[in-house]
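This part of the workshop introduces the protein records we will be handling. To make this concrete, we reproduce a full record directly below.
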Amino acid sequence: MAKYPEREGRQIELKQDLSGFDSLLKTIVAFLNDIGGLIAIGVVGQSREILGLTELQIEDYLERIPQAIADAIEPRAPVSI
């Protein structure tokens, strides 16, 4: 079992998946209001086990996440995916 090298903390958030974008958007806003951070999707938070994502999930997230951010966060959030 591969483990993500770092633990969750002030600048790192680990998410197993995105069943909805509310939690993701809250985390992004928190990072924007602080010193920034990294959100790793496909990683179990407590154990840091890397589950990964399917090709379908990757394609879906690459399309939907930027739109969700643009629709929900103003002024425009400087994020990289």
